[in-house]
Amino acid sequence: MTAPATEATQELPTGIAPRVPEARLEHVFERTADVTPEATAIEHEGRPTSYGDLDARANQLAHVLHDRGVRPGARVALFLERSPETYVALLGALKAGAVFVPIDPESPADRVAYVLEDADVDLVLTSDALSRTPLERPWLAVDAEAATIDRASTRRPDGRGPPGQDDPAAYVIYTSGSSGRPKGVEVAQSSITNFVAVVPTVYDVRPDDRVHQGMTISFDFSIEEIWPTWAVGATLVIGPNDERRLGADLADHLDQARVSVLYAVPTLLATIPRELPGLRTVLVGGEACPAEIVERWARPGRRMLNTYGPTEATVTATWCELVPGRPVTIGRPLPTYGVELLDPDDAGHRPVPAGEVGEIALAGPGVARGYVGMPEKTAEKFVAHPDGGATVYRTGDLGRWTADGMVEYLGRADAEVKVRGHRVDLGEIESVLLADPGVGSAVVALQEGDLAAYVVSDDEEQALATRLTDLTRDRLPAYMIPATLDVLDVLPTQASGKVDRSALPPPAGRRLVAATGPVVAPEGELEERIAAVWAEATGVPAAELSVEADFFDALGGHSLLAATTVTLMRERGVGGSPAVRDLYAHPTVRALAAHLATAGSGETTAAAARPGPIRHSGRRVATAGAAQAVLVYLLLLAVTLPLSWVYTTNDGTVSTAVLAQVLAAGAAAWLGVRWVLPVLLARPLAAGVRPGRYRLWGPTYLRLWTLDLVLRQAPLPVLAGSPFLAPYLRLLGARVGRRVHVAATEMNLPRLLHLDDDVAVGYGAVLHGWAVEDGWVVVGPVHLERRAVAGANSVLSPGSRVAERGMLAEQSALGRDEVVPADTTWAGSPPQEVATEDAALASMRAAGPLPGWRTRHLPGALAGLVGLELAAVLMVVPSVLVVWGALLAAGVLAGLAATLVAGPVFVLTVCAVVALGRRLVLPRTPVGIHPVRSALGLRKWVADALLAYSLAFTNTLYATLYTVPWLRLLGARVGRGAEVSTAAHLDPDLLTLGDQSFVADMASVGAATYAEGRMLLRPTRVGDRAFVGNAALVPSGVGTGDGSLVGVHTVPPPDGVPDDSSWLGSPAMHLPRRQDSGDWTDEDTVAPGRRRVRQRLAVEFVRATLPASLLGIGLYLYLLALSLVARGRDLLPVALGAPLIALAASIVIVAYVVAVKRHVAGVYRPRVAPLWDPFVRRTELVTGLYEAAAVPTLLGMLTGTPFLPVALRRFGARIGRRTWIATTYLTEFDLVEIGDDAAVGPGVSLQTHLFEDRVMKMSTVRVEPGATVGARSVVLYDATVGADVDLDRLSLLMKGEELGEGGRWRGIPARGVADEQTVELPRLEGAVR
């Protein structure tokens, strides 16, 4: 071969080293089976078969074949659909020493008979179903003979090579032939074993890959799928035989099967409507690859290869890596292969000069032996190279060398074309057409991707079309049937007399179909729209397309055209979101229209009616605010009364004894307000509140707000997950059945909460019996029926219900008055029914409920509860002793100064108690499914409560450089450079965070799952450089790959997140590209210098400890003022003044935080700053003080009052009049704007900044007048919630998104609610005022 073939090489991937070729093809598989017998060789519909088991089964079949007379060198046909038996048959034939001859099971009987005869097949391996095809040869149905095969030996057969043959044939594959019959290509063992030794290195197939096997085994592309996979010990995922072979259905299958390597023809890739992030490698071949396919499928983190090679050169001869923006070529030869460009008009087959177009010729050990029974054809195509005498194969393809040594493919030199990856000899089709006596001459051309037939005939056109339809379907495979038929007077010819294909007219005739019967016109808009799409897709004129014509039989449709048609319907908005299976099941326009109309009306879930908006006067709001101020005062009175009594009794003096009394009184007040007050007030406050709607700021609202305020003091965070929560909820007024497990704490109306037997509620779930919408308070029961499950972070709205054995999955929202039907699982926001769920969870739910708590568990439960309450008190004691010691030893000022030290002491004490307590209670979290009501369940509850203490008491320790060592102390495996914020519901010893990973605020990573009295505990890994966004939820056992992104409010795919992929939403959708975060140096983002690290450690030490010191100062000043007021006074004036003193101390703390914000961060403006920028440290310091000092001291109590907007304005937020704000999740205050009469629900995050690629981006968030933002929603920066918009609960408004005036939106991300109505809700007498 000449220099251009080998003058340059492409860089091969690292990984599997090239191998010495095996002597026989099956030895490749056997070597892997010996090394890794337990590895999965094939997987079919989720059922794996190991290399060892497949090897043993193939050995058994080989012995059976020998008993049936199959000897080395015999030819055995494989006539099977894809199934595990196919691969048993393939290996069994090879192990018996036979040459395998694969036949497409969808081939017409005439073609099957020809191949069996032409190849002189000795035996046909088939299935019981396919054996009904007339085979005219001995056959064995592999499935029907299973019992016979079972009895055979599993020992590997000996003596497989035919006597006297050093290099026997491995297989014969039939390709299209110009004579009207296919031709068989015989490939030697040395050719195919050489190929399998070379390509794993080039393709970088790895042992952990999962490779899709979707090609029919009669197409040698299947060899490329199968054998490199087995060579490295990877898993071959058997493709389906139904509608999932193409389009969206194929995409779903590839996702579900976790396929990482896909071989496909470009046409097949074009039918897949969405990105497949799990694919690590995509290899295309079989036809020319358009640049558009490369632009769509090639991306960083994925390798896309273009392969070229005819069957005559053993599968593939050349390859190249495809990169967007570069010309698509077929590359350079594989190692051991050679390429030459010959002059097609030169009888001596000499090479063309450099840069000239020539016929591509292939050389090397991959060149096949020739065509079976066709010596003349073999001599024509397999020729000796003029320079060296080596045999080369003339492909008939034209090409040209590029300047960088690549071969540019320029099409066919003869009448052979590629159709959907299949080589088609146009002459074979023409021969079939000429077999009709009414056809005088015929020619077939490829026109715009479809085969077009042109004939000359005097017969009546309709009758001719009918005959040719029958003839082609009897003689040709589906992909070779022409799409159209034109009858011409004469065929255009060249001067030589040959047909001039370039002069053929565009197809203008009818489809080559049996289009008989009348044309039935469409009725109704849906039929008209479907018919229009079908006409466009099939090329049938709309006037000739009958709505009763079968898509496949009458319109010539095939699987590719079906996928294309369904995709076109979706794009045009016809019939909602039809699936390919819909078209297969309803193959006429009329039937499909009827199905889609019925399915659409039956599956649409309308949102609950929206109450007509109401606006309130300033006077009404002020009146309610005054009442709320009194209620806050009364709560503070209850808290401070024991302290007032102590100081009054001791006449305001300070001593060791008095301070001991103060500590005891403080503990008593804390325990009394937590445990007793909610029980005393919950039922009276909720009495008489019935489902319906009430005016905001009215008496009923004030009762509900007071109840919510009281419940926030209750010990629900400690009781969550314990045996005591159910009885405590009953005391509060809830109806709670037996064996109920609740790990959540947000329940704002216990009286309307119904939890039936064996219910499970996951971490962070929200069970809201009332909510504010459009100026109304909407009230409704929340009901979970027997054995129902509400997943972690799910949100249930007023009036919602989960029916018996139903499940609302993690991070899913059930809207007002919505119902999850019995025995179904719904997931997402908005929720939709899902057919499958996590296998482990499904097994938990299918197993049925476990028994309740036993008497033997009670002592341990009581010990755990007492221990937790004592732990909370003990966490404060060392700090108190520090301050008291200074006060008693050196006076008031020394005590005040000591509060600065008390902050760090408190943080260290909390960490010590939590870490030691967790190590004592649950030193190791066991993986698996365990009973909740067990000793392990008790220990898990206590461990969870201790971690909740850590988040509540040392919140600002998180999102600092101290977080990583803290998590490591708890047992987590955290890589270098990881950043972790306030991640919740962790099982630290089951958590792995990779190097430079990033877990943002309020994310839940690895949370346990509860159902049927069981808990599911699994390890979770966040990959290197992976990002988990704010409020995202990564369930236990779901890993995120290296470089991946799980966005805000997102639940990742259940099978995990592939490397370098990005996901957003619930359910998650793949994001093909991330927004660029700018060019920042590593020092700014991941690799700071030592000076920056020291500076950050110092600032974050202050951030972690100053809030506790600030609270300590406030408490110290309060007690000091109270002692002064108590001197010489009776209890009554002291007690009445104590709440005001406490309120004043709280205001001082808030004012201090405001001052720090103004002087440290200044006025927030839109900006971008990398993680290690000093500005980020300053703003994070302010955020920490706000969240850990200002909010718990005062602002948390003011949610839902007119006073919170006043306070937030002091921080810089622009907030209008009469607003109702029930959240404190604001950070960059100056960037927040909330209009008049707006309502912002509990847990809402107005997210003015995000960290993206370790870069902080901040900008404005606007909630315009009259808008409602529902509970737990997130509005990202640069977004606007328009005037009078209702953004429902658990929704996400994307960056830069603007919701126009009015309308309803819901979902993650938000989408419009169709058919939105404003109607009257039930009103109760006297309730609306």
From TrEMBL:
Keywords: Membrane, Phosphopantetheine, Phosphoprotein, Transmembrane, Transmembrane helix. It holds the Pfam family AMP-binding_C. One of its GO terms (biological process) is secondary metabolite biosynthetic process. The keyword Disulfide bond does not apply. Residues 521-600 form the Carrier domain. The chain crosses the membrane at residues 625-647, 653-673, 862-887, 893-916, 1101-1125, 1131-1155. PROSITE patterns: AMP_BINDING (PS00455), CARRIER (PS50075), PHOSPHOPANTETHEINE (PS00012). One of its GO terms (cellular component) is cytoplasm. GO terms for molecular function: phosphopantetheine binding. This is Non-ribosomal peptide synthetase-like protein. The lineage of its organism: Bacteria, Bacillati, Actinomycetota, Actinomycetes, Pseudonocardiales.
